[in-house]
Write the structure tokens for this entry.
Amino acid sequence: MSTNQKASVVIVDDEEMVITSVRAYLELETEFEIHGFTEPEQAVKHMENHLVDIAVSDYLMPRMSGIQFLTRAKQIQPEASRVLLTGHADKQSAIQAINDVGLYQYVEKPWENAQLLLIIQNGIERSKLLRELREKVSELDTAHSSLKNVQKRLLQAFL
Amino acid sequence: MSQPDPPEALNELASLRAKAERLAAQLAEEHKMAELGRLLAGIVHEINSPIGSILSNNQVIIRSLEMLKSALASGDRAALEKSGRQVETCLSLAAIDKIACERISELVRGLKTFVRVDSAEMRKADLNEQIENMLKLTQCDFRGRIAVETDFGALPPVECHASMLSQVFLNILVNAGHAIDGPGKITVRTRAEGGGVHISIADTGHGIKPEDRPKILAGGFTTKAVGVGTGLGLSLSKRIVEETHGGSIDFESEVGVGTTFHIRIPVEQKKKAAG
């Protein structure tokens, strides 16, 4: 996967109008790359092939719910932050989402642009840090195993 | 012919009958409100998306106009070009705002038909339109789970209490939705038939058990959990259709396949005897 400079944002909502509005705002205020999908399945495909920093999803959608989509997103790219953007008045679903999917944030519709932007910026920051952390850990792992090798060879040389 | 009743007994009977009618009307009203309350979560969801869009678009358009204003004042070529592109975005956002407003007003129209208190007299109404309005309200709840198919025939205007009939349609649609676990389909069909209209509402739900069938049109029977149904919806529907409108309501059901309700309403009401 490439380490592209521009942060990548995925927005999933079966309402085209929501995607267009959020896209227009983010394009005006940021340099983010915005990928909007009205079909969660297509967003899943996108995430299988492209690095994504944050996925923002509606809750009630035909065929695949926001919770199902974000669960898939978590499996594909665990470091990508997950946000639920919903107008559903039912708090129970929010609680379930937060517990089941490990949501980064829950935003209610109608949303506040400035608040949504802040959440997206922080979410991107978080996923970049998580990814860096994972790289560092794996570097440490390699260093650790090569050290072990050296140690083994040293022991063999002396015994 | 029996002996004529003494006048005081007749008076008492009349006042008792009036009281019973008043209580029945009150019960119907309360049931309507309870049903509306249960639908509200879905309706709120359906309204919040377009409102979110409109609010966001408004902010973007204002920002863009400010950018354009300062670009025009400075005359800077790059700034003007950027603002020119932004104007295109604003035009598409304005088009979205229109769609969003229409969506909200459709829902509000549906709600208005539903809460309107019927005048004492019946009026001619387009029942296809009444059903369409109720479908808009229930679709908020069905969305993502139940596909609704409509097959509307040309219907003559029907002399009726439109909001009472809307309550019947809503009640049967909501029941159909409750009967379906997981994904399913509801088919609504209307036809002009003889001197009346025939409305059928079919669901692919779990069906009604044979032993429950004789009970479901009677009051106080429900298979739904506490808080989901009052067990009064269908008995009220039966009264509205049969007693108020001189129509008929019946159903056929197969366990595991689904249920179809048939409502028949005469186009014209027989003139009731005066007094």
Summary: Chain B has a mean pLDDT of 85. The beta strands of chain B are 123-125, 146-152, 158-160, 184-193, 196-203, 248-254, 258-266.
